[in-house]
Automatic annotation (TrEMBL):
Name of the protein: Alpha/beta-hydrolase
InterPro entries for the chain: AB_hydrolase_3, AB_hydrolase_fold, GDXG_lipolytic_enzyme
Keyword vocabulary terms for this entry: Hydrolase
Species of the source: Lophiostoma macrostomum CBS 122681
Alpha/beta hydrolase fold-3 domain ranges (all copies): 133-357
GO molecular function list: hydrolase activity
């Protein structure tokens, strides 16, 4: 573990990095005036400059392994924030089965615009007009949460343009380094993902046909894991005589499909799109190694983590979104083809000049218009498959 993740070295590194970046800033200001001086000539001046800032922040925060606190208190979200108890342990089977070090726990989550409550009975649920997006945030399993500062921009887009009446963003456990029995490695985040899904269908009685499963980056990895889990274990997880149902559709935004490859910094640095993305090789390696945990990188070979080259069958229609100049573009386009070959209903949408996961950071790096366009198209697609 790097000494830069501990004080006072952490603070010293951040200060030195900021000074160095600001010293170079005038050079970028001048360089980006000319379109062909930008990382991509189709980007605007604002996009090129703000992408520089976002790239710096991602690299710097990964170098010091900045921690994201996950309190189970409302905070700024007030009434939007709720806490959820885990389902009975029998719901967590196979790769999600409880172990001495990784058990389902109570988690938090944020509702947009306001919470739904368990006021709808089982007999009335099919009459509900609520369409709920269960959105799993990105952040390489090591950063981020579902709260308004991190997930508010994307959630509001899904409400305005995606056809949803509500969005629920669970605060799943994040992995940390050094790896240990308490570092929330795989499958902690997936246990929490299942907890959130069961909360919607069992506690709130939301009809599965009214649920859209959504995830960006690592969140899309978790969404795929949930779909695979339902396909493989759904029949064994019955409630009132009914097996675990599928959601009506899934939105997969810039899915992270091969964390094992990301553990090697060289894989990210040598990617043809590395210069046009903000994903740092340090960030990707941090996430992969932390999610692997004390079991080592072989854990990432699980079909519930590594989806590249491992398509599976699901009855859920899939919308896959990719940025045309992001590092993960090649994996996403190939996986979409592989899933189609398995007989799945897959629609691939590419935002031609966008970097990774602009739904998450579009408001920070000048890609708001692209993010709006992606969600609008996803909403139109959803209305079509739901008929």
């Amino acid at each position: 573990m790097s000494i830069l993740t501990h004080h006072p070295f952490k603070a010293g590194y951040v200060l030195a990095a900021l000074c160095f970046e600001f010293a170079r800033l005038p050079l970028y200001i001048l360089k980006y005036v000319v379109p062909y001086g930008r990382p991509h000539p189709a980007w605007t001046y604002k996009q090129a400059l703000t992408m520089r800032f976002v790239s710096f922040f991602v690299h710097c925060s990964a170098t010091v392994q900045a921690k994201t606190p996950l309190p189970l208190l409302p905070g700024a979200e007030k009434d939007q924030f709720v806490t959820i108890d885990p389902a009975p342990s029998t719901a967590y089977k196979g790769p999600l089965a409880p172990t001495p070090s990784t058990k389902p726990v109570r988690i938090g989550g944020t509702w947009y615009p306001a919470p739904l409550h368990a006021s709808t009975s089982d007999t009335e649920k099919n009459e509900s007009t609520a369409v709920v997006v269960l959105h799993l945030h990105g952040g390489a399993y090591v950063t981020g949460d579902g709260r308004t500062q991190a997930s508010g921009f994307f959630s509001k887009l899904q409400l305005k343009h995606g056809g949803a009446t509500h969005v629920f963003c669970p605060q799943y456990r994040l992995s940390t380094l050094p790896a240990s029995a308490t570092s929330n490695a795989f499958p902690a985040a997936l246990q929490d993902t299942l907890t959130a899904y069961l909360y919607l269908i069992r506690t709130l009685h939301i009809a599965p046909r009214n649920i859209i499963l959504s995830g960006d980056s690592a969140g899309a990895n978790a969404a795929l894991a949930l779909l695979r889990y339902i396909a493989e274990y759904g029949a064994e997880i019955q409630h009132n005589g009914v097996e675990l149902p599928n959601p009506s559709a899934a939105w997969l935004w810039s899915p992270w499909l091969a964390p094992a490859e990301s553990a090697d910094p060289a894989w990210t640095r040598t990617n043809p799109h590395y210069a046009t993305d903000y994903l740092s090789f340090v960030f990707s390696a941090w996430g992969a190694n932390a999610y692997a945990g004390p079991g080592g990188l072989s854990v990432l070979d699980s079909p519930y983590v590594g989806f590249k080259g491992r398509p599976f069958r699901t009855i859920v229609p899939l919308w896959m979104s990719a940025g045309g100049v992001e590092v993960l573009y090649f994996d996403i386009t190939q996986f979409a083809e592989d899933m189609r070959d398995k007989g799945n209903d897959v629609t691939l949408d590419v935002e031609r000049h966008a970097p990774h996961d602009v739904g998450l950071v579009g408001n920070l790096c000048g890609f708001e218009r692209e993010a709006v366009g992606m969600v609008k198209r996803a909403g139109e697609w959803y209305r079509g498959v739901r008929k």
